[in-house]
Amino acid sequence: MNQRAHLVLLLLVSIVSLVSGQEGFPLFTKDFPPEEFAQRRAAVYEAIGPAALALVQGTPMQDNNTRFRQSADFYYLCGIESPHAYLLLDGSQKRATLFLPHRNEARERSEGKTLSAEDAELIKQLSGIDAVSSSDLLQEQLARFARTQSITTLYTPFAPAEGFAGGRDVGLRGAADIASDPLDGRPSRAGHLIHLLKTRLPHFEVKNLNPIIDNLRLIKSPREIELIRRATILSCEALRESMRSTKPGIYEHELDGVAKFVYYRNGAQGEAYYSLVASGRNAWYPHYNAGKRQMLDGDFLLMDFAPDYGYYMSDITRQWPVNGKFNSWQRELYGFYVKCYRSILKAIRPGVTAQKIKQEAASEMEKILASSRFSKPIYETAAKNFVSGYKTGAQNPRTSLGHWVGMGVHDIGQDWGPLRPGMVFTIEPALRVPEEQIYIRLEDLIVITETGADIISEYLPMDIDGIEKIMREEGFLKRYPKIDLRKK
Questions:
Q1: Among 402, 421, 406, which residue's Cα sits nearest to residue 213?
Q2: What is the mean pLDDT of residues 314-337?
């Protein structure tokens, strides 16, 4: 940006700030420069070709009193956080046009400034978008492209958009639940858009944009990895503080509150997913999230929780005894599990497939199993099933180590080749003892680099001695006891 353009941008931002009365509120993300969004759009142009358009629909205004959060794919391509926005990418001219609603002055007087169609010049300066227009002109613009006859294909995402605390898997499940409701049955928002495009613009062949963006999102840039690293550190620190605060008699939801305090106090914009705080046999259900149980002395607690930090997630799990001291069966089973778990972490590296890594880890697990002794036959059977199950999974060429992490906690993308730098994922193998409904699982976040695997969350102890040491420290809940509501 030259000096004159920079001065113009500063003037525009100053004018908008004066009009809106807002201070310290960025109108455009500071996490990525416009050039990185431009590179992502350039990759889309290359993928769709010169005879195609791509249309990405942003998130609408929420129908509740929660803060607006843009959908993942839309944010990924332009960084704009205004509701009811559309991004049109022209493969022939390699040109991006942003369509926004007109300014709602009454709402801005109440809630503050939102970028609108009237901010065209400011938006172009801030974001690098080529053109900005009002949403009511979008269909006319698409019709003009249809009349050229040189543009034959229109790409748009077919999958539900990824929004607040929800990935594509959750969106697909929600759409399926609505479709199966006999007195509802609405199509998804994405499905409704596809229907409108096909009926109003039959000139175009409508194709799925998701595989193109999914492939781009699979490999994270250094700036994306930095946001994931921050989310991971916050998750680890929330779990550490939760360990300190755990004692018999508290409720599961109290640790949810501890974690959220850590997240919001340190700049997170929300949770990546609902907290999984599962004590006792509640841990048997991998996605238990009610948080209503009072924890008892002798319980084993699983906590799986992470924040949304600048549209990027993490996913970390630890387990610990509620009373701060591992008992005999916990030491026995958890100790065996941790040894096997570390054998997986040790094998992860770039240039090899998940199948190869799992084969190496399974071989090491068999040695660990052979040298282990168990107090109950059911524990020995559970350990054998855990190792044999992992070995069986390693026979599948399309096996995975866990799941991808990025803008979604269960991020999108498919790849069964050798691990490459920029790939980010977690591992979370589970050991089960059905007879006693014992469930043991850890989860760590791994970033593949040029030379190895950066296990960002490894600094948070998973070993027995390290966890017990943390739990002897004073915790947040111990310093700030619950309020007795009966006396108020």
A1: 406
A2: 98
Higher pLDDT, 406 or 25: 406
What mean pLDDT is predicted for residues 67-84?
95
- Other C-beta atoms lying within 10 Å of the C-beta of residue 186: 11
pLDDT band at 17 (very low <50, low <70, confident <90, very high): very low
Domain ranges across the chain:
3-218, 222-479
What does the pLDDT read at residue 444?
98
* 458, 333 Cβ separation under 8 angstroms: no
| Pairing outcome for strands 52-57 and 153-156 | parallel
How would you list the strands of the sheet with 52-57, edge to edge? Answer: 131-134, 95-100, 86-90, 52-57, 153-156, 205-208
- Closest by CA to 72, choosing from 2, 165, 208, is 165
276-308 confidence digits (pLDDT tens): 999 999 999 999 999 999 999 999 999 999 999
Average pLDDT, the chain: 93
Reported as a pLDDT band with limits 50, 70 and 90, residue 167 is confident
* Sign of the CA dihedral with 480 first, then 483, 484, and 488 last: positive
Contact 268, 193 (CB under 8 A): no
Burial of 215 (0-12, 13-18, 19+ CB in 10 A): middle
For domain 222-479, give the CATH number.
3.90.230.10
CB neighbour list of residue 390: distance below 8 Å, 6 or more residues apart: 340, 358, 361, 362, 365, 429
Query: Using CA atoms, how far apart are residues 389 and 381, in angstroms rounded to an integer?
Result: 12
Tell me, what's the pLDDT at 8? Answer: 45
CATH superfamily, with its number, for domain 3-218: Creatinase/prolidase N-terminal domain (3.40.350.10)
Please report which residue ranges of 164-293 form alpha helices under DSSP H.
168-179, 189-200, 210-218, 222-245, 252-265
- Average the pLDDT over 214-228 and give the result: 98
Distances (CA, A) of 62 to 3, 260, 273, 339: 39, 22, 18, 46
Contact 239, 442 (CB under 8 A): no
In eight-state DSSP terms, residue 267 is T
Q: Under DSSP, is residue 488 helix (H, G, I), strand (E, B) or coil?
A: coil
- Cross-strand bridge partners of residue 180: none
Q: What does the alpha-carbon distance between residue 2 and residue 14 come to, in Å, rounded to a whole number?
A: 18
Task: Tell me phi and psi for residue 133, to 5 degrees.
Answer: -140, 175
Q: Read off φ and ψ for residue 109, nearest 5 degrees.
A: -65, -25
